[in-house]
């Protein structure tokens, strides 16, 4: 998980995972402008998202310089169930079979590409 880039569902921002905190979970509290609140309460109030697994460990990401200048925290705690992995890790890139399987799905000849686009278009209608 370390070094993986994730995309958060609620704000479409990307974060690089630097650590996993087994000491905190979504029921843990943190300080806001309005006082202390738990991650569960925060996401429910701010984004109307209900966190299902309240015992999962939190993912930690170092804030980007831009976010630090804007007054953000140095470490951001992310709820794993609200994150989606993006891109490929170095381990994935070095796996020949995985890369071959991926290229089979992404490198299509023109006829196959048109066929898939037509199928997709038909599903939209």
Report a brief summary of the structure:
This protein has five helices and eight strands; from the N terminus they run βββββαβαββααα.
Describe the model:
The chain has a 3-stranded antiparallel β-sheet with strand order 2-1-8, with no helix packed on it. Strands 3-6-7 form a 3-stranded antiparallel β-sheet, with no helix packed on it. A two-stranded antiparallel sheet has the order 4-5. Strand 1 and strand 2 (14-16) form a beta hairpin. It is elongated. The protein has 2 domains: 5-86, paz domain; 90-124, no CATH class. It has helices at residues 39-47, 65-69, 90-94, 96-106, 110-124; strands at residues 5-8, 14-16, 19-21, 29-32, 35-38, 58-62, 75-78, 83-86. With 125 residues, the chain is an alpha+beta fold. One of its GO terms (biological process) is regulatory ncRNA-mediated post-transcriptional gene silencing. InterPro entries: PAZ_dom, PAZ_dom_sf. It is found in: Cytoplasm.
Task: Name the features.
8 strands; 25% strand; 125 residues; RNA-binding; RNA binding; developmental protein; 36% helix; paz domain; alpha+beta; cytoplasm
The percent range for strand residues is 15-25%
> What is the number of E strands?
8
Question: What fold name stands as the CATH topology of the largest domain?
Answer: paz domain
Second CATH tier, the architecture of the largest domain: Beta Complex
Binned, the helix content reads 25-40%
Low-confidence parts, pLDDT < 50 over ≥5 residues?
Answer: none
Distance between the termini: 39 Å
What do the pLDDT scores average to? Answer: 90
What's the CATH C level of the largest domain? Mainly Beta
How many domains, as an integer?
2
Helix vs. strand class: alpha+beta
Query: Rough shape?
Result: elongated
Order of strands, main sheet, comes to: 2-1-8
* DSSP helical segment count: 5
Main sheet summary: 3 strands, antiparallel
Q: Kindly provide the radius of gyration, computed on alpha-carbon positions and rounded to a whole number of angstroms.
A: 19 Å
Question: What is the assigned CATH homologous superfamily of the largest domain?
Answer: paz domain
Order of helices and strands: EEEEEHEHEEHHH
Family: Belongs to the argonaute family. Piwi subfamily.
Pfam families: PAZ
Keywords: Cytoplasm, Developmental protein, RNA-binding, RNA-mediated gene silencing
InterPro entries: PAZ_dom, PAZ_dom_sf
């Amino acid at each position: 998980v370390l070094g993986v880039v994730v995309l958060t569902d609620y704000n479409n921002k990307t974060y690089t995972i630097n650590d996993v905190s087994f000491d905190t979970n979504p029921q843990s509290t943190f300080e806001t402008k309005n006082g202390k609140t738990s991650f569960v309460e925060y996401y429910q109030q701010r984004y109307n998202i209900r966190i299902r697994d309240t015992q999962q460990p939190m993912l930690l990401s170092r804030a980007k310089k831009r976010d630090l200048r804007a007054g953000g925290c140095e470490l951001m705690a992310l709820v794993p169930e609200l994150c989606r992995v993006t891109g490929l890790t170095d381990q994935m890139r070095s796996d020949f079979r995985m890369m071959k399987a991926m290229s089979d799905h992404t490198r299509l000849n023109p006829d196959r590409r048109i066929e898939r686009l037509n199928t997709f278009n038909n599903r939209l209608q």
